[in-house]
Amino acid sequence: PKSPPPVVYSRYADDHLRAVGKLLKDRTKELKEKVIDPYATSPEITPPVSEYRNYTLKGHFSPSACVCVCGGVRVCVCVTSRAAFPGLSSRLCASDRRYISWMAFVAVAYNYNVWLCTARLAFPFHNAVVNPFWIFFDVVSDIINVIDIIIWQPRLQFVKAGDIIKDRVMTKEHYRKSPKFKTDLFSIVPFDLLCLHFEFSSVYRLNRFIRVRHFRSKLHSLFDLCFIYLVARTTGYLLYALHLNSCIYYVASLHQGLGTSHWVYDGNGTAYLRCYYFAVRSLINIGGLPEPTNTYEISFQMLNFFIGVFVFSSLIGQMRDVIGAATAAQTYFRASMDDCVSYMNTYHIPKMVQNRVRMWYNYTWAAQGMLDESELLDKMPLVMKTAIAVDINLATFQKIDLFKGCDQQMLVDMLLRLKSIIYLPGDFVVRKGDIGKEMYIIKSGAVQVVGGPDNSIVFVTLKAGCVFGEISLLQSAKDGGNRRTANVKAHGFANLSVLEKKDLFDILVHYPESQKVKLMKAKAPTGAKAEDKPKGMTLFQNKPPTPKMFRALRKLKVQNLCFMRQI
């Protein structure tokens, strides 16, 4: 009969004791795992960025989640948005796309001041008709600057003693104590009000020029082809230098008198366009300029020539560096390919092999923009290399039966040992009977498992994300366990990631429990084959067990025989 259930005098005490017992069991299990593998880290991996929840807190603030990129590392930051400025967080990363978008408006306001204020100062662009429009645009640019100083700049994160400071009060205090805050305050002092007592002029807005932002350096990190931005920036410097020279030329013409000589501006046509044309021909030293007639004009023209030579030599040098940096990788690729072709020609390599080598070079460059990805990754810190490797291949590794139940950190270590190899159409990745020293992961393309007399029979086609060759990594050479059992060739261009046996065993030294799991899984297919192979009497059905009564009679018979022999 079953024993009666235990008597529970207090359900509350019983539940708490059971909970404490479960916690103690879990803690004991965790400590046992650490004792077995003291070098293994936590099996937990970094969780993915979760979707944010929309809810209201006291009716004034609503939390949200933003992902910003700081120094190339994705950081998930919980931010708070004000109802008055939806989407604006209480703390901002300097590389946040929202902040960069806002800085585009600030850049437009700044360029409005540095370009049009100088033009208005030199050329006769002020009159009773257009002055209201100038006042409107001046006020709009000032409002943009004020909003940036009051709302955006105090929310910028900063680094202090290696820590990223995100506290709203500390970021505001840091900005107000910085020299940038004093410069920003001086840049928005409304000297324009002096126009109420004096003549309307843009000279009162020259203090807006000192508010220079690092907008250009932030844009540099957003472009996929950064050299396009660098060329555009250098071109902007050139155009602004010509703009300033055209303004100075018009002022010099006013000083000499418009139309008083062939060298000065004659006053016909659009003043700014004519003066800009003169600046282009003068600074770039195109020639064909009117001859200066007096000392003032000669001195101005000589100074123009000297400045033009200095400025444009600097800009041309910058342009050369930009273009050289943009094509450095392609130049290295061409040099490597030319050296390889020269080597093959020296040793009279067959043309068919040379064509396949050229095909490999061209496809590798077109597919990944470099010959060896490891050269780029080796320059990165370990944290960034790990993040890239996890994003690319961790999901594939977790699906491999051989690696299921293993330490997650061990999988990450294996990802860092992967090497990329590109195979041409028809290349054999592995051949039947070869010694297995590598495991392959298909990054792109496809491979086929083939057989038959001339390898014309296709058994299966493996596509991107599939893995093959993993069993031979752990099987020993005894009885040919590490031999390849099939032919695998590339179907089209195939980009594979390779993990070598030596790298795997170097990693398994630090994960003994994971090594046991993989060894058991690696031996399982061999054991299954041995059990499935029928031998001798096992071809027939299993013999039923002998009944107990017959076993007792047989035993009694044996005892009688022994007794008779003794007699």
UniProtKB/TrEMBL annotation:
**Which GO cellular component terms, listed alphabetically, does the Swiss-Prot or TrEMBL entry include?**
intracellular cyclic nucleotide activated cation channel complex; photoreceptor outer segment; plasma membrane
* Principal location: membrane
Which protein, by its recorded name, is this? Cyclic nucleotide-binding domain-containing protein
List the keywords (alphabetical).
cGMP, cGMP-binding, Ion channel, Ion transport, Ligand-gated ion channel, Membrane, Nucleotide-binding, Sensory transduction, Transmembrane, Transmembrane helix, Transport, Vision
A Gene Ontology biological process noted in the UniProt record is:
visual perception
Where does the Cyclic nucleotide-binding domain start and stop, copy by copy? Answer: 402-508
Look up and give the organism this protein is from.
Answer: Periophthalmus magnuspinnatus
Q: What is the reaction catalyzed?
A: K(+)(in) = K(+)(out); Na(+)(in) = Na(+)(out)
PANTHER family reported in the protein's UniProt record: CYCLIC NUCLEOTIDE-GATED CATION CHANNEL BETA-3, CYCLIC NUCLEOTIDE-GATED CATION CHANNEL SUBUNIT A
Which Pfam families does the UniProt record give? cNMP_binding
Q: InterPro entries, from UniProt?
A: CNG_cation_channel, cNMP-bd_CS, cNMP-bd_dom, cNMP-bd_dom_sf, RmlC-like_jellyroll
Keyword Lipoprotein attached: no
